[in-house]
Task: inverse folding
């Protein structure tokens, strides 16, 4: 765990690679079967549990990283997980306004974005 100079919080890397995380998120969002989706949800829940342990030890960067990755993946099926992880990370990092913006954005985010240039 790395602590940032002058700060009381740190960073703990995610326990999966970028490619593994993308596969997990894709499995949750686009699973071809209920079994595949459930398996991916279970893996994601394990990572979220590790984020909670990291939060307990003031390593808030892990939740920020996971939350941003899930949000940027863009699937509506991940909104509950994003809403659980990302605003909490922002609040722990004293970024309350970012947390409020994220919560409001997730409430109004639409699955299909209209191309304004059509």
Result:
């Amino acid at each position: 765990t790395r602590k940032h100079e002058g700060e009381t919080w740190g960073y703990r890397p995610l326990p999966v690679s970028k490619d593994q995380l993308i596969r997990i998120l894709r499995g949750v969002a686009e699973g071809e079967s209920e079994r595949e989706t459930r398996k991916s949800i279970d893996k994601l829940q394990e990572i979220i549990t590790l984020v909670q342990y990291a939060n307990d030890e003031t390593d808030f960067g892990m939740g920020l990283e996971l939350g941003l990755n899930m949000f940027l993946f863009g699937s509506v099926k991940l909104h509950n997980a994003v809403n659980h992880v990302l605003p909490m990370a922002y609040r722990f990092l004293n970024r309350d306004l970012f947390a409020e913006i994220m919560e409001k954005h997730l409430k109004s985010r639409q699955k299909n974005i209209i191309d304004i240039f059509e």
Residues 8 and 30 are 38 Å apart (CA to CA). The two ends are 48 Å apart (CA to CA).
